[in-house]
Amino acid sequence: MEPRYIKLTKILLSDISCGAYPVGSSLPTELELAEKYKVGRGTVRAALEQIETLGLISRRKRAGTRVESASPRSTEYTPTISTIEELVQYGTNAERVIHGIRNIVIDVEMSARLGCPPGTHWMEIQTARMNPLAPAYPVAWSHVYIKAADGAKIRRLLRQKQSLICDLVCEATGSIVKEIRQTVRAVGVPAELAQKMGTKPDAHALEFLRQYYDQSDNLIEVAVSIQPADRFSYTTVLQRQLAGSATV
Fold it and tell me: Helix H segments across 175-229?
């Protein structure tokens, strides 16, 4: 079933493109849109975030929401991520499609790559992340690894819910994600994924390896994602720590 915010996003995109909300005009408030389309304000806010990402609107406090363009500027998916919470939001803004699930035993080579102890049993979940507004090809292709015992608890839910896999694991086990360690490197798209992702083999891409640790510093998930350069960019915000300021 298509999420409500995606349905509303498509309606608003159509309204903007046909001139119901002309370029230079202001959109109704979130409350007014919620009442007009019979949805919650959270649904309106999520839809506006999608439309803002496409460059059709700009939003400023006390200035409202202004229509900037009648058509999307690009299909590139460009999150800005600086906290675990923002990373979680990035994950929920793209739809997950499951392409395969299997149980594996971690060998020495995989252990060195992923950080999982050799000889342990894990579940490998192969997924694609789709931008609902540009669904021709995936934004990212991922191999996600969770402990086999945890996987057995959530296997049915993987195809029923769009929740992040780490959230499903935490709900099933009572864990909390305390830390995510991320390694990013430039790679070529593997030949076996090129056709699925609509790219040429060895096309430029970024590889994200994320290791999720719980409150006891136990590794509970590893995700390896390939994201083609022509449809993804990544922004990190760094701030200088002022001298004498306390670190909370």
Answer: 191-197
